[in-house]
Specification:
It is a single chain. With 883 residues, the protein is an alpha+beta fold. It has 5 domains: 184 residues, 2-Layer Sandwich (Beta-Lactamase), CATH 3.30.450; 103 residues, Beta-Lactamase (2-Layer Sandwich); 115 residues, PAS domain (Beta-Lactamase); 161 residues, Alpha-Beta Plaits, CATH 3.30.70; 249 residues, TIM Barrel. The chain has 31 helices and 34 strands. The chain has an 8-stranded mixed β-barrel with strand order 26-27-29-30-31-32-33-34, surrounded by 4 helices. It has a 5-stranded antiparallel β-sheet with strand order 5-4-8-7-6, sandwiched between helices. The longest helix is centred in the first third of the chain and has 23 residues.
């Protein structure tokens, strides 16, 4: 090996320093060489591949030990080099490789020594590399940076550059080659990626619709896309090198110069300005430019680049809009609806005559006043939130209803659709809106709402209202760990009074009982009339059962006191059943059911008493268990069937649709009514699979009727709340339609009003997804679930079905008549088809027909019947085309 210090000395002095060593080739004899370090060509590093000369004949035997030591150090230095180094014989076989070359190729030294270098060079590059080394041999001169692709041991391909030199013996004869290999794989990949990126960006620029340009600091075009050339109307060769300002008149050229000068000074990115250009054909166009400063790699400004857009038509439109503004204001003043504009602070900047009338202010007083002063204090936050949302999202907000305060202090109701008011730059500078006086509609809705939630005879909350109040009470009791009590009250022998004294006397008695109950109870307690002679009481914050027993005793005492009805004194008693939350039940329905069961026990115990619910009142519970057990096997045993009830057009007496109604015949239980098994199915979740069967069977039956030559009609199928919220509902609907081959518009899915009001926002989303399948939607039992016109209009439904409870007593019952009329009117307002359920008498039919109800369903026309009977019925009543 080299003596310590020789190689560094050569590096430092940049001259030759001879060192003697010996190498042992594949032959057994040793050769002595003189080594002269020589700097690699173009190398900036301090590693020098040595030139060696065979001096064996010049050395004595006494130098062999020193030669061996020098050889070892020499090999070690080569192996520690970062560069890949090799030596070849004249045939191209490796005679020496360092560690770096082994890593480069992926081979060990033993695997490379003796192997021909050509075997690792790609077929495409072998000839070029061979020619380069032939030239080294011929000229004796090095060859620099010979590029080629090589194959690693693992089969992967890399790229390298080879700097080769002749390897000389002591006589100066070329005995092989030596060289340095530089791996260029990563550089090649980077260069390829850069080329692809540049090509991609050029393609993007060429394909954008807006003009793209680059100019030097003097404003001369150095690059542009086809869209830019089309905007200016010049051929490519003329536009290239032309000054940006040459395509503008003097005034606009100054504008361009000023804009670019400002960009140069400030370095602002995306500066936007517009000016007028003169195309080659002499026509003028308005363009909008967004430009930025262009810099080289060192950050030195070299020009500008930007986007140019032809905005001529937009400018014309803006001018047209400006000219029409006065006419627009005139038209606004002639509108029946109120129109207003506000600044961002909520101050009126414009109001038409209708808006002034709505609020009761002269225009000069309204302009400049704040919108807040015309809104009821309790509703301001809601209105403010809606307008804040307009500002934040930039999107309109419709249906903003609120209580408006007029100048004279009176109140009314208004409904506003609000929109963002923007300037020419698109910035929101205020709000504009269209307002409508909805006072009459609101009062009607409130009346309907009250009628829907209160008993018209007694003024007490009705069943639905009580259910809501009970749920709230349960939630509160659960939160604060309190007890509540439900008292189910039924008047004893009330029917006798009705039969002997007439319905008018019965109504007077019910009103008196309601009054006595309210007087007996605390203000925080709730008393409700469920219907007929049934009342229910909710007692909040129950301390113990003795407390409830005391209240029940007071109620019985107040009721039994004599009362005078239509000049006659009469007495009546009551039976009361009591259930306690959470001891007896933890939900409203079970609490009511258990109180009802306890009330029947009170009847059995002789009436005029109260009974608490107990676990031994289990006859109905046993029935429930039996139903559940058999219900789980009913589908598998094919125990279900469908009956079909027609829907009939009042005007034509033609069948317009049919509702599929589920029936269950069990070998051990016999005929089980839907009111018995549907709640169990709903509670256990079996309703989902049962409902799926009903839908598929009903669709298949409808198609079967059509195949018999009967006309297509709309098939209605009921959905439960469990089905409606089931993730697979849409798939179930599509599968039923697909398997049966029935058109989607022939399927109508019925959901109850209470279901859609369970969570209106979520239900709107679910119904919209169902509607997207193409089926129809109907709201069943309408009038029982608190829904208002304002709420129903948001649901994507086609039909309203008036609940049979309102139909039952018309035309005799004034309240039911009013509610039915209101529902029909609501349906007409919303362009919905209205179907009356439970029509059983001629009087009911005539009343509904006179009040423009669309369809009826009930025993008056047909009870639910089997498929064969319905087919016969359908043949007699040809349906009108579906709407």
């Amino acid at each position: 090996m080299f003596r310590k210090g020789y190689l560094p000395m050569a590096v430092k002095s940049k001259s030759s320093v001879k060192a003697k060593t010996s190498i042992k080739p594949k032959t057994a004899s040793k050769h002595k060489v003189a080594v002269k370090p020589k700097k690699a060509i173009n190398s900036k590093k301090s590693d020098f591949p040595p030139l060696s000369e065979d001096i064996t004949s010049n050395l004595g035997v006494h130098d062999e030990w020193n030669v061996a030591q020098s050889e070892e150090r020499y090999r070690k230095i080569l192996d520690e080099m970062a560069e890949a180094y090799y030596e070849l014989d004249l045939d191209g076989n490796y005679t020496f490789v360092n560690d770096a070359l082994c890593r480069h190729m992926g081979y060990t030294k033993d695997e490379l020594i003796g192997v021909n270098a050509r075997s690792h060079i790609s077929k495409e590059d072998v000839d070029n590399v061979s020619k380069a080394f032939t030239n080294i041999y011929t000229t004796g001169k090095p060859a620099r940076e010979i590029p080629y692709a090589f194959i690693r041991k693992d089969g992967t391909t890399g790229f390298a550059e080879n700097t080769g030199s002749p390897l000389l013996n002591q006589k100066g004869a070329i005995i092989g080659f030596r060289g340095i290999v530089q791996d260029t794989t990563e550089r090649r990949q980077t260069e390829a990626a850069l080329r692809q990126s540049e090509e991609k960006h050029r393609n993007i620029i060429e394909n954008i619709q807006d003009g793209y340009f680059e100019v030097d600091l003097d404003g001369n075009f150095t690059f542009f896309n086809e869209a830019m050339r089309e905007i200016h109307g010049y051929p490519k060769e003329e536009l290239m090198g032309m000054n940006h300002r040459q395509s503008a008149d003097k005034e606009n050229a100054k504008k361009v110069f000023k804009a670019f000068n400002e960009i140069y000074k400030t370095g602002i990115t995306g500066s936007i300005f517009d000016y007028e250009i003169i195309r080659k054909d002499g026509t003028r166009r308005q363009v909008e430019v967004s430009a930025s400063l262009q810099k080289d790699a060192s950050g030195k400004p070299i020009g500008f680049r930007g986007i140019s857009r032809d905005i001529t038509e937009r400018k014309k439109m803006e001018e047209t809009i400006r000219q029409s503004e006065e006419r627009y204001r005139t038209i606004l003043d002639e509108m029946e609806d109120g129109y207003f504009e506000l600044d961002l602070a909520g101050n009126f900047t414009f109001a038409n005559e209708a808006d002034c009338r709505l609020l009761g202010y002269p225009k000069e007083e309204l302009i400049g006043s704040n919108f807040r002063s015309q809104i009821a204090k309790e509703e301001f936050d809601t209105v403010y939130g809606a307008f804040s949302n307009i500002y934040i999202t930039g999107k309109p907000q419709r249906g903003i209803s609120y209580k408006a305060i007029r100048k004279d202090g009176s109140t009314g109701y208004a409904e506003v659709a609000g929109f963002p008011l923007r300037n020419q730059k698109g910035e929101i500078i205020g709000f504009r809106g269209i307002g409508r006086d909805i006072t009459a509609r609101k009062l009607t809705e409130e009346k309907i709402q009250y009628m829907a939630t209160h008993d018209s005879l007694t003024g007490l909350p009705n069943r639905l209202m009580f259910s809501q109040l009970l749920n709230h009470a349960i939630q509160s009791a659960n939160r604060y760990k309190r007890q509540i009590a439900v008292l189910f009250l039924d008047l004893d022998r009330f029917k006798n009074i009705n039969d002997t004294m007439g319905h008018e006397a019965g109504d007077l008695l019910l009103k008196e009982i309601a009054t006595r109950l309210k007087q007996t109870l605390r203000a925080v307690d709730v008393v409700s009339r469920l219907g007929g002679d049934e009342f229910v009481v909710l007692i909040d914050e129950v301390s113990n059962t003795n407390h409830v027993a005391t209240v029940a005793h007071k109620i019985l005492t107040s009721i039994i006191n004599p009362l005078t009805i239509m000049g006659q004194e009469c007495r009546i008693t009551a039976s009361i059943g009591i259930s306690i939350y959470p001891k007896d039940a933890e939900d409203d329905q079970t609490l009511m059911k258990n109180a009802d069961m306890a009330m029947y026990l009170a009847k059995e115990e002789g009436k005029n008493n109260y009974q608490f619910y107990a676990d031994d009142i289990q006859s109905k519970s046993l029935e429930h268990q039996s139903i559940e057990t058999n219900l789980r096997l009913a589908l598998e045993r094919n125990e279900f069937s469908l009956h079909y009830q027609a829907k009939v057009d009042f005007k034509t007496n033609a069948i317009t649709g049919v509702e599929a109604l589920l029936r269950w015949q069990n070998p051990s239980l016999g005929s089980v009514t839907p009111t018995q098994f549907i709640p169990v199915a709903e509670e256990t979740g079996l309703i989902v699979s049962i409902g799926r069967w009903v839908m598929r069977t009903a669709c298949a039956q409808n198609v079967a009727w059509q195949q018999q030559g009967l006309p297509p009609i709309c098939m209605a199928v009921n959905l439960s709340l469990r089905q409606l919220t089931d993730d697979n509902l849409i798939d179930d609907i599509r599968m039923a339609l697909h398997d049966s081959g029935m058109a989607p518009n022939l399927l109508e899915l019925e959901i109850t009003e209470s279901m859609v009001m369970h969570n209106p926002a979520r239900m709107i989303s679910i119904l919209a997804k169902i509607k997207s399948v193409g089926v129809r939607l109907a709201i069943d039992d309408f009038g029982t679930g608190y829904a208002s016109l304002a709420q129903i209009k948001h649901f994507p439904v086609d039909t309203l079905k008036v609940d049979r409870s309102f139909i039952r007593n018309i035309p005799q019952d004034a309240e039911d008549k009013a509610i039915t009329e209101a529902i029909i009117a609501m349906g007409k307002t919303l362009s919905l088809r209205v179907v009356a359920e439970g029509v059983e008498t001629l009087e009911q039919m005539n009343f509904l027909k006179d009040h423009s109800c669309d369809d009826m369903q009930g025993y008056y026309f047909s009870k639910p019947i089997v498929p064969e009977q319905f087919a016969d019925l359908l043949r007699k009543h040809v349906p009108s085309p579906l709407k």
